[in-house]
Amino acid sequence: MERKTLAANVAPLLAELRACERVLGCIIEGVGPEQLLIRYSIKGGDSMYEASFVLDVSSPSYKGASCEHDAWMTYQYLIVLTSTPLLPTLPTLLDHLTESRDVYTFIKRVRQAYVKMFS
Asked: Among 9, 89, 106, 107, which is disulfide-ready with 97 (CB 3.0 to 4.6 Å)?
């Protein structure tokens, strides 16, 4: 009975999450307590690139780590504290996020930074 209730409560949230992912151009996954993995597939020239970062939402100041999807799969439960590919603007973007608390805009800006980097 609990599973049925849980499934009924989760279904609308999953639909909302998928809609957000379509708008933001990413996939969002929980990877640990209060940690989100945001993954992007980005077309750059004739190639497709994978990029991702982990957003720790456990405190009022957001902390981030970046990694390529393949590296993340290898170290699934570790937060990699370097950007690979290096995203030099990540600290500035995190500062803006801490000030604005606007996660949606942050995710879009990170994607834009990766798109710019890969083009």
From this structure: 106
